[in-house]
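Dear colleague,

As promised, here are the two records you asked about, laid out in our usual form so they can be pasted straight into your sheet.

NAME FIELD: protein one
SEQUENCE, THEN STRUCTURE:
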Amino acid sequence: MDKGQLPKAYEFHDVEARIYSFWEETGCFRADEQSKKPAFSIVIPPPNVTGQLHMGHALNNTLQDILCRYKRLKGFEVLWVPGTDHAGIATQNVVERQLAQQGLSRYDLGREKFVEKVWEWKAQYGGYIIKQLKRLGASCDWSRERFTMDEGLSRAVRIVFVKLYEEGLIYRGTRMINWCPRCRTALANIEVEGEEIPGRLYHIRYPLADGSGELVVATTRPETMLGDTAVAVHPEDPRYRDAVGKKVILPLMNRPIPVIADAYVDREFGTGALKVTPGHDFNDFDLGVKHNLELIQVIGEDGVMTQEAGAYAGMDRYECRKRVVADLEAAGFLVKIEDHVHRVGHCYRCKNVVEPMQSLQWFVSTRPLAERAMEAVRDGRTRIVPEKWEKDYFQWLENIEDWCVSRQIWWGHRIPAWYCADCGEVTVAVEDPDRCGACGSPNLSQEEDVLDTWFSSALWPFSTMGWPEKTPELDKFYPTSVLVTGFDILFFWVARMMMMGLHFMKDVPFRDVYVHALVRDAQGQKMSKSKGNVIDPIIMMDKYGTDALRFTLTAFAVQGRDVKLSEERIEGYRHFVNKIWNATRLVLMNVEGASLLDEIPQKPDRLAHRWILSRFQKVVQEVEEALENYHFNQYAQSLYQFFWHEYCDWYLEMIKPDLYGDDPKARLLAQTISVYLLRNVLLMLHPVMPFVTEELWQKLPGTQGSIMQAAFPAVEMGRIDAQAEGEMGLLTGVIGSIRNIRGEMNISPAARVEVVCLCASEKDKALLEANDRTVVDLARLKGLKVALHGETAKPRLAAGAVVSGVEVYVLLEDVLDFEGEAARLQKEIGKLEKELAGTSRKLSNEDFLSRAPGHVVEKEREKAQRLGEKLEKIRHHWQRVEELRRNAAQSAG
């Protein structure tokens, strides 16, 4: 890249692909495991191989990239490991849908051919999200890209499974599990998403077998009653004391079942009598074990009623529900039906309702592993940020249940267990056995099930670095420095990585866990296609550039608070990108051909130089502190404020007389400091805005190579100058007050005005007199008069303000039409009063408040507050103008 002239506008479409190629070609992302530099490492939360970049990905990977680029500039050897997850259920679903379009199922192909099809799909489409991450600017070490089913990771999975089995931490057993009839597989408990849905509560009569009465039970799932094996009541419930120990006749099935007493029963729910179906409810299963009840499975793995359902066998579960309700009503067993909102478990992949059922599966015994994972956070080996997520982490691990890791699908790591057809022995081994370990028979068949996708993901921090081999990467980069992740996979992934890392590496997988929140729309609503409020990051990057999107996400990434995103905000930060470009162009035009100073004087004569150099040191401190503590929004806002408002709005404007003047020494110093600051601000902005900063870095005098190979600015404590900052605060305050008065009084920007400043001290007077040229130029004045209090009379026809004890008066005679301005303000007040009245009427309308969505009501309240504040301000301003109008009339009289 050459230094050349800077084009008038920043065309990000032309720049981004070129710069990313430059970084890859020059090895800027490569980590050297032999380096003597301190290590910083991150493993990417592997996106599903089926995935496409969404705003959650964009936020997560932007934050990781910021940390990686920052640490490189700070002199660390940085490894950011990329990769994708094979996403067992999701990927199999995608390929099965493709086959269905051809009228085929996976069973038509058979296991081997189907898995080949999935690998073909992965080869064609699996790299799509990786390309999108590169588009986002992710500086991963792509030479180390991993896939959870690549050869190395697959071997690691087998070794872990076998070791856990040999240690008694993996076992095969029959337990209650969650089953997805759509995906036809078992799910771990945390893969079931509870969702509040409108349903019905059915009240059903269960007649006592001795004819002495009946019990009425209430259920949301009448189809499961076909598998009832008891009715439970609370032992202290007087309504049912006489029924305990008796039997009721199960309606429709005509089967006698016992009435049992158990304190588990909630007397307040429904009728206080609970139907017990051990085969289709976790709590009922526990009751069944406790009371030695029979377990009957009436719903099959395909969601169809089994032979145990009698006359209803072969029906879909929902069709059966309708038929059961109709038959109960016809037979007089249905008492009533009530509307009832209840929480129902859904498959986290296909969103179908899951069925609890008893099944023979493989499980990880998690309690011993969980204890160590909790201890590591308690003793500070791993820190969770924000700290509030620790509570959720501990709560889940304290109540952890054994992890069902077997899945009845074909795409994934096939469980390395073989069954002997002759003696029934199970052989679990890393290498495929050719004969039974117990009897020597060659009649072995491998387990059909594959492992839960999250099993391989749990090994990600060390398997991606070459474990079980003792690699230089593991030695240099494990434990990783930080994990950046969303709270939604705190249990799915983070806790499991902690358990596996501590067990196999004897150390935590990461020192810090930074948990970021969700990206929502501007009203705080969760983005979804059904709501039509999804903001596509690819479209935003096409429209506004990658840097603008990244900066927006970062600026709103407040710890513990969801990111509220809108396209308008992204567009707004696109203006910031343009501001950086235009400011650099201005500086470059003024330093062309100049031989800049090698060193900047410790205490330059000019106040503007001392002030900006002092402020710059403070900003470096703010940025470092923010990034070290994961306060990404503070990092972004500190740089935004400094660059736009202090460097551009104040400093560059103040030094223009030097840049354009005849004093070569003053010009050279202004040129040198403006470039020095620009260079270092680009370095600090680089982690969040990599593309525009690299492009501009290449054009600045005195730069070499990529900005990624430069050093982050160091704080020079000797340049911090409290006096300069105080004096500049007064100066900018005076100029700002004049500008505010001009705006409030509707004075034309082109009009030059006279200003009088009355000071309380000689020091303030001397400061303003020494910098009168700056005040005149930046406030667009005709003249400036500075005096001490009492040396001159306070002007009558003037608008005033007080800044740090200095009274500032803008003379308005011959500048402002008092009559016309008063009339204009009266008209504005009338307009605002009318608008506020309309909003207030809407907010006092009970019909609107009860029917309108919450975010609409809140928006209306915000509008009312905004209008009220504006109205109050305009009224106050009108009073000031009225007073001036009267003064002017008296003077004229």
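NAME FIELD: protein two
SEQUENCE, THEN STRUCTURE:
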Amino acid sequence: MIPRPDGQQEKLLQALIEIGQELASTIDLDELLRRILQISREVFRFENAIIRLLDRERRVLVTAAAYGYDEEASRLELPLGKGVMGKVAETGEPILVSDVTAFSAYVPGIQGARSELAVPLLARDRVIGVFNVESPHPNAFGAGDIAPLLTMAGQAAIAIENARLYDNLRSVSRRYQELHQLNSGILRSANLGIYTVDAGLRITSWNRKIEEMSGLGEKEALGCNLFELFPGLVAEGFAARIRRVLETGVAEKLSLSHRNLKGELRFQKRRLTPLKDGERTTGAVVIVEDITEFKRLLEQTVQGEKLAEVGRMSAGIAHEVNNPLSVISYAAQLLLREENLPPFQAELAERIESEVERLKTLTGSLLSFSRGGDTFKRPVDLNEVLRDVLRLVRYELERNNIDLVENYAVLPVVHADSNKLKQVFINLIMNAAHSMGGVGKLVLSTNLVAGDEVEAVVADSGPGIPEEVLPHIFEPFYSTKKEGEGTGLGLYICRNIIVEHEGRLTVESRPGEGATFRVILPIGHLH
């Protein structure tokens, strides 16, 4: 029974105020339930108490906290309407039982119980649970005990509901944070450029890949107007497309060539998807796929097929040319055998035979170079490789007024694929001629290096290679030529060929002083 001697009513009210203040400051549900039971012992002097909270979906009361009850009684779940607590939960009204032996619906609680008092835990006029006490003595509780217990229960119920709301909010916040981290992780890891804009075209997200593509960091991009940062997008037709997506709420896709803030021309596919809030379009997601390397590789593949076909045609033409050349050569030899041939005619016949031999050598080089297939290494004279290459490109050099200087040392043979070496030197020589812009000096030389290596040097008098370009000169798809004039794969392939031959391809250059490429190959046995 709650003690209320004279002068204790005021203390009880003060205690209830303090209870309310303390419970309002506790947001951890388990700690809150522990404090409610502790207060019930300290203020109301209960020998036992149990709090069961309502599971609305299952329509049962589940024990949340208790003292003075054995484990079996605490573990018991009460359906709505069953026992004293079940009826309180069902009706929302307190129940006082003076003698439980006369109450047929009593569900056993403490050992030897005779009386019981249960009050609802009401929060916002809704039952969320029941607070219950029992006693081994009959008539242990009176009607005067109900009001103060209801007051405490009401304060406890509000505190419990607040704690539950806080737990739900914390759980939602944690799930939101986890979802945000997951989304951020996906955006960071995606191999596509992804960003979002709001209805005013201000950037609201900017992933790592789009940073790489654009050359602009996330901090610099967020909150800025997209077209103020990238005015070139307007001329590219992108502005009209994204505004249409914002107006219509219909996704679109397009391909365009885009020059980024670094001045690089990139080819991109873009997909534009509306961001929706219900039926309203609040922004757009832009997914950017850079297809520059793919496009260049495709162009290189097409160009390679064209070159292969040209090679096959060249081989056929060379064979066809060789047949009449043989006839002409034979006729010239017959003329030279004639006696009494005038000196002028004899000189012409000798000239014809000499030119025929030169043409045969040229078509032989063309046939040799046009042959594809795997790498086939054999003993090769590097000087002869250079001379064969010059037979193929000499006309181009003369046409461009290039002054050619040859300086070959006596070299031991190297084991190499002569056709692949010719591919390297043709590329280096033609690059040099192109860099000199129609006039200049090209020096080809060979040397013996350190006793176990030979080198071939291709040096031009052109403008040289800029310092910022030099570190990238052998990278794939890197080209300083105008768009459409080069694939950026020539020097990359050259280096790979030389590496395949266990050699090195190096470059030395200063602006205004030309460029020098060195092909260094080992002297060794065939592998």
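A couple of things worth noting about protein two: The chain has four domains: 8-168, 191-290, 298-372, 374-527. Residues 216 and 261 are 8 Å apart (CA to CA).

Best,
R.
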